[in-house]
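Ticket #4471: structure export looks truncated?
Reporter: QA, pipeline team
Priority: medium

Steps to reproduce: submit the single chain below to the structure queue and open the exported record.
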Amino acid sequence: MSAALMNFQPVLDDIVATLRPELGQAGTVASYIPALARVDARQFGIALRTCDGEEAFAGDGEVPFSIQSVSKLFTLTLAMQRMGDALWERIGREPSGNPFNSLVQLENEQGKPRNPFINAGAIAVADRLVSQAAVDGGSAKADILALMSGLCGEPIAFDEEVAKSEADTGFRNVALANFMKSFGKIDNDVGTVLDTYFHQCSLRMSCRQLARAAAFLCRDGAHPIDGEPGITGERQTRRINALMLTCGTYDAAGDVAFSIGLPCKSGVGGGIVAVVPDKLTLCVWSPALDATGNSLLGMKALELFVTRTGLSVF
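Actual output as written to the record:
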């Protein structure tokens, strides 16, 4: 075991021990998605991967869960790979300051989503992936699975029950997609785009797998496993990390930057991925959410980690 791993494992173990008495005591699971409403809130996992490939995990760090909006980080990466700066012609890069599924802001801005991490923005990204897959003669969903499995070095799959649950109840997302279509900001069939979007949100992964998959973001875009360049360029990696810091935690991004000081991307499944550039990626998971839709104990864990390690971008 390397010195780097020896230094971090006790930190993760201590965070789990500190937070264990709080499991299931506060927050609520994402009940508006029926398949997520049944998840036991009394779970907490944490894992990290360093730039040199060392991994550590604690608690429920190897329990798979629905990554939900954490997937937006990876579909954005895929779209930036395929389209480069052309992606930003229809998607903004500003914090929204509104709920992640707001229709009001989208109308005020003529169907152009404020950023790629709110629902409208991620649906717009899915539309670009569908278009690109059609040119390549493939499938956007297959491209997403190939990216995730390649980053992890092990098979990653969709949770079809969660995808169906989202499709059956995702009326607001249907409205967002049709609204953008009415402004000419969606090119493909709305049903096809939403099927891609609902499936990306249903990806099932553990903290360990997510920390590994996101590790290109702390390595200037180099592949987490083989170290080869090209997942993203150094410039694109900086931009993704910047968007995570300013837009990655719904309308709590300012508070997260203030209290944690790391680029983060959260999801209503209770997962949060955080990046310490040039050092490591970290993933925390606990299903009970706070009022902003972010994992209650996940945020506490990130604060504890930063406090105990001194790692921050500031």
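Status: closed, not a bug. The export was complete when the record was re-opened. Leaving a note from the reviewer for reference: The beta strands are 45-50, 55-59, 65-66, 157-158, 203-205, 264-266, 271-276, 280-285.
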